[in-house]
Write a structure and sequence with these properties.
The chain is of the alpha+beta class and about 110 residues long. Helix content is about 35%, strand content about 25%. The chain has a two-stranded antiparallel ribbon with strand order 1-2. Helix 2 (about 45-55) packs across helix 3. The chain is elongated.
């Protein structure tokens, strides 16, 4: 599930900004499941998105910027995400575990 969705398709532009937290993901937990991990990813990408919007005043990144992002920034984020303990990022990752049926009431 993306914490920050920014996509371009032909002439159409789709932008959606959501901020997910551990608490909001807990509320979205499927029945008979437990949230076992939640973390943000792509911390450098988040900063690059903000810089793109605020400093360069571009609504959407160019194809060249996307290639740079994919080849350099995402790889760099692997290190910074770990150092930041996955507390900041452009994307959110949530992992749920389904409970065993014998642990579910009325089964």
């Amino acid at each position: 599930m993306s914490a920050f969705i920014h996509a371009q398709t032909g002439e159409q532009h789709f932008r959606s900004f959501r901020r997910y937290t551990r608490e909001s993901m807990t509320r979205l937990t499927p029945a008979h499941s437990d949230l076992v991990d939640f973390r943000y990813l792509d911390s450098i990408g988040l900063m690059a998105s903000l810089a793109n919007a605020l400093l360069m005043r571009q609504a959407l990144p160019t194809a060249k910027q996307i290639r740079f992002w994919d080849r350099i920034l995402v790889r760099s984020s692997r290190l910074t995400d770990t150092l930041l303990r996955y507390s900041l990022g452009k994307s959110a990752l949530a992992v749920w575990r389904r409970r065993q049926l014998e642990n579910i009431p009325n089964h």
